[in-house]
Automatic annotation (TrEMBL):
Annotated transmembrane regions: none
Record bears the keyword ATP-binding: yes
UniProt name for this protein: non-specific serine/threonine protein kinase
SMART domains: PBD, S_TKc
Length: 421
């Protein structure tokens, strides 16, 4: 057996061995502690990667401070930037944030994923096992890199179409997460969702082929702030496209759970698309709340950080943070250590805009609807789509223009850096 085929066979065997584990969660009712009262609720389709309650007994005295804290929590507290008064006045919030931060360090970002109520899927069900991608795609050129893997620009031989290929190493710790992402992309068809073409197993690496967005991610544009400042109409356009995508995702009982500028892709034709579904969750029709903690802290809703049950509206909070990011160049609390930022989100919500006089009442009202701490008052995407702020967006051509200006600035900066070496 050739080495490549042998490696592929070994990896396929390892992936198949996870099927029984995944299937065990299918159709089961999951039980999770509900912090708001002493009852338990029966839940959905994705098993939690950790328990929300740790059974740690901690006492607090305003003079001597906490006693019974694990040593790791003590170390985090010392470097958190929290004042003594903040700890004294918000002891439970501090404990929730410490628990959250500790759990994120220990969890492997792995969840058992159920895609519907009748069938379990494994990664090998979703990938192309017949064709060789090296014969289908040529001229691979690396164009990006992240925690999940590398991204390459390539050309499809049969059509001359430009595509993006994400290469990810497959292992026990990420196979379920990747299965989630592949399934969600493969089963989603919407103008505001990144288009999935195919996926292949090459040695121990998964190649995921998607449409190529030549504008990169929204973060690339925001990195040039204040040289590039989005107008309110441009923000409204990006917001509108993201909202329509979220409304589509939610209509299938799914939550994205990691909306931020890094996961919004742009094209010079004005297209705006949601990507990166590794953290997405599928809910049952019977229950629409869950308690697992995933996502990116600075964009994360308070109920997520506190370990409360949550639903679709966590995506709306993250969208609101992304709006502030577009308006001011970065999300709120970015200047603080992560633990202090998490504490401020849970106790104070978000600060107001730094220069509110620059923004219309329509924008500020829309922002307040997204960033409402009380989830019952936070609007859903279908409701936000009716708001005045998104009724007069910029044109796709205007978005294309700002992307091209951003590329010119980045190219000039890169050239200057080379000359200064």
């Amino acid at each position: 057996m050739p080495n490549e085929e042998k490696k592929k066979s070994t990896v396929l065997g390892r992936l198949k061995s996870t099927k029984k584990k995944v299937a065990k969660t299918i159709g089961k009712k999951q039980h999770h502690p509900k912090k708001s009262n002493d009852t338990e609720f029966e839940d959905f389709v994705v098993s939690t990667p950790f328990a929300v309650q740790h059974g740690i007994h901690v006492d607090f005295n305003s003079t001597t401070g906490f006693s019974g804290l694990p040593s790791e929590w003590e170390a985090m507290l010392k470097t958190s930037g929290l004042s003594k008064d903040e700890v004294i006045n918000n002891t439970q919030a501090v404990l929730d944030v410490l628990e959250f931060a500790d759990t994120r360090k220990k969890e492997h970002r792995e969840e058992s994923f159920k895609v519907d109520t009748t069938k379990s899927y494994e990664l090998t069900d979703l990938i192309n096992k017949v064709q060789n991608p090296r014969e289908l795609y040529i001229d691979l050129e690396k164009c990006g890199e992240g925690a999940a893997g590398e991204v390459f620009l390539a050309t499809e031989k049969a059509t001359s179409r430009k595509v993006a290929i994400k290469k990810m190493e497959i292992g026990k710790e990420n196979v379920k997460l990747i299965t989630t992402e592949i399934y969600i992309m493969k089963s989603s068809t919407h103008p505001s969702i990144i288009q999935y073409f195919d996926s292949f197993l090459v040695d121990s690496c998964l190649w995921v082929v998607m449409e190529f967005m030549d504008g990169g991610c929204l973060t690339d544009l925001l990195e040039e702030y204040p040289k590039i400042k989005l107008t309110e109409a441009q923000i409204a356009y990006i917001c509108l496209q993201t909202l329509t995508g979220l409304d589509y995702i939610h209509s299938y009982n799914r939550i994205h759970r990691d909306i931020k500028s890094d996961n919004i892709l742009l094209h010079t034709d004005g297209s705006v698309k949601i990507a990166d579904f590794g953290y997405a969750a599928q809910l049952t029709e019977e229950k629409n709340k869950r308690v697992t903690i995933v996502g990116t802290p600075y964009w994360m809703a308070p109920e997520l950080i506190r370990g409360y049950e949550y639903s679709f509206k966590v995506d709306v909070w993250s969208l609101g943070i992304m709006l502030m990011e577009m308006a001011e160049g970065e999300p709120p609390y970015m200047e603080f250590p992560p633990l202090r930022a998490l504490f401020l989100i849970t106790t104070k919500g978000t600060p107001g805009l730094k220069e509110p006089h620059l923004w219309s009442n329509e924008f500020k009202n829309f922002l307040s609807f997204c960033l409402e701490i009380e989830t019952d008052k936070r609007l859903l995407p279908c409701e936000l789509l009716k708001e005045a702020f998104v009724q007069n967006p910029a044109s796709p051509a205007q978005i294309g223009d700002v992307i091209r200006r951003t590329k010119q600035i980045k190219a000039a900066t890169a050239k200057e850096n080379v000359l200064n070496l």
